[in-house]
Amino acid sequence: MDIGIGLPNSLAGVGGRRLVDWARAAEGRGFSVLGTIGRIAYDTHEELIALAAAAAVTERIHLMPTVLVAPPRQAVLLAKQAATLDAVSEGRFRLGLGIGGRDDDYLALGEDPTGKGDALEEVVATCRSVWAGERPEGAELPVGPHPAHLPIVLGGFSEPAFRRAGRIADGFVAGPMPPDAIAGAARVVAEEAEKAGRPAPTLHAATYVALGDDVRDEADRNVASYYAFDPQMVEVLTENLLRTPDDVARTRDALAEVGVEELCLWPEAAGLEQVDRIADAAGL
Predict the structure, then answer these.
(1) 8 A C-beta contact, residue 270 and residue 258
(2) What are the distances in angstroms from CA 195 to CA 4, 163, 168, 188, 258?
(3) How far apart are CA 81 and CA 137, in angstroms?
């Protein structure tokens, strides 16, 4: 199994230079991918710009939002941004997309938060059309750049999300869920891909981590702040946060057993020492 690490872009109060230093450190420790999570209506650094900064100071590590809330964004512009990031990183970028769980991210951009699943499928279709060189309605010329292959990875927690990934995605990323739930989701994804006559998407997973007793309070504050809209989720995520090297190792091994090919460990503490702690715990 490959092991990735999240950028701390979703943690309030993190300076922009920390993201650059974190990216360099993560590549140096051998992580496979830099992941991001993000919201619009929250004091965090925007994912694509954060990953572009990371691309500029790295050469090997892959880059992927895990996942970006796509439907409220203008799809042609998103396609152009993603293709540009793919070009800047020389093919290291994967576009991870989802619908999110908060209406305010839509409303903040002036978009209607209904029909999210259908809207996400339209975004995927638009991106692939733009990348293939098809001219958007009203444009005199096609929109570039045109990547040779830019994978789209979809995330989600519901059966419709699993089936959507099976039908149209190159990969599926499962958020913090027990291994047996991820295995069940993967079966639905694979079944839907088979019905569509296409290969099963690559299986990714992601979960939260904050290693060390010295960051326990910081991690709890970050979870409580980011998920303040859902107290039950705060309780579940706080209880299941990976806090020790043994937690990381057990999770890695359990997810490998159910077929996860890459695990991204999202940080809930922003100190740069977390990169080495997580790498050591994951066996890198």
Answers:
(1) no
(2) 31, 10, 11, 11, 22
(3) 18
Distance, CA of 170 to CA of 200 (rounded, Å)? 8
Question: Helices 116-131 and 75-88: crossing angle, nearest 10°?
Answer: 50
* Residue 264: CB atoms within 10 Å: 26
Q: What is the pLDDT of residues 141-200, one digit of tens each?
A: 999 999 999 999 999 999 999 999 999 999 999 999 999 999 999 999 999 999 999 999
186 burial via Cβ count (<10 Å: 0-12, 13-18, 19+): buried
pLDDT at 81: 98
Report how far residue 256's alpha carbon sits from residue 52's, in angstroms, rounded to the nearest whole number: 30
SS3 36: strand
Q: Where are the beta strands (DSSP E) in the chain?
A: 2-6, 33-36, 62-65, 68-69, 95-98, 152-155, 171-174, 202-209, 262-267
Q: What are the structural domains of the chain?
A: 2-282 (3.20.20.30)
pLDDT tens digits, 90-107: 999 999 999 999 999 999
